[in-house]
Amino acid sequence: MLRLTDNHDEYQTTADWLMSQTKHRPQVAIICGSGLGMLADSLKCQNSFAYSDIPGFPQSTVQGHAGRLVFGDLKGKSCVCMQGRFHMYEGHSLLKTTFPVRVFKLMGVETLIVTNAAGSLADGFQPGDIMIIKDHINFPGLVGLNPLCGPNDEKFGPRFPAMSDCYDKGLRCLVMEIAKQIGVAGLLQEGVYAMVGGPNFETIAEARLLHRLGVDAVGMSTVPEVIVATHCGLRVFGLSLITNKVVKSYEDSDSVNHDGVLEVGRLRSQTVQQLVTELISRMEINNNENSNNAS
Ligand SMILES: O=P(O)(O)O[C@@H]1C[C@H](O)[C@@H](CO)O1
């Protein structure tokens, strides 16, 4: 079993170090998926840190994940943006892949926005569509690979957290509204994201299985971050950029590759950025600066 040695002090040490290096006290955290690192570009008054300079932080090894933490202001809200996330297939434990989420909680963040690149199973979805995540299936979790395995840290949350409403409904409706107002509603979908372990893409038999199980989009990340965020009481919103259709037919000669995934990220970067910027601008924040109950 992958374990899992982090303790509360390790998160606190990293949070304290960051708060000693920046004046920003973020209310919103954004995790950028493959090829979506430009989400940090809209932040004003930036302070940025290479992951390699942050005590306790894991390192990004995947192309399209720059490995930088960017603090800044966006439309009156203080934000922190991860340009690069950590994946289980890189060799990190699941708890390590979610390390920043608890650090953000200790810094006072109350809302987490997760983004990813994903392949579509749903028949009506096209590459370039943007899927609001309504729910997820945690395939690694179904066989016991869950970031919450091991001793529970009650300071963060309960032993048995509910996951039936982890993607905030109010924020999902708000993004639908925004999409209509900025004229991109035609690109928007809503659906179920499934996490698989990767790093290989799916076989055709696996793709057919996922399709039958009701998966709309599949990827290799996000779910552990959402579980840890929900466990510690963060409000969560998630977007999948559909970068490819998952091949479901033996007759189909298409095949997916990471460069193609990054290319669709570049093509849709502006629209994703617009949606996330407007969401942050319009979302309500409790302004509970550093009044979290996890410290
Ligand atoms: O970090 P995300 O989930 O956006 O990355 C996806 C899944 C793999 O890491 C990679 C495959 O192209 O993109």
Quick overview of this protein structure:
The protein has 295 residues and is an alpha/beta fold.
Kindly list the characteristics that best describe this protein.
single chain; 295 residues; alpha/beta; Rossmann fold; five-stranded mixed barrel; 8 helices; 22% strand; globular; disordered C terminus; binds ligand LQZ7MJT6; Purine_phosphorylase
What does this structure look like?
It is a single chain. The protein is α/β, with parallel strands linked by helices. The protein has one domain (8-283): Rossmann fold, CATH 3.40.50. Helix content is 29%, strand content 22%. It is built from eight helices and nine strands. It has a five-stranded mixed β-barrel with strand order 5-8-7-6-9. Helix 5 crosses helix 8. The longest helix is centred in the last third of the chain and has 25 residues, at 258-282. 46% of the residues are buried. Mean pLDDT is 94; it is low at 289-295.
Structural class, judged by helices and strands? Answer: alpha/beta
Percentage beta strand = 15-25%
- Low-confidence segments, ≥5 residues, pLDDT <50? 289-295
CATH homolog superfamily: Nucleoside phosphorylase domain
Query: What's the alpha carbon Rg, rounded to whole Å?
Result: 18 Å
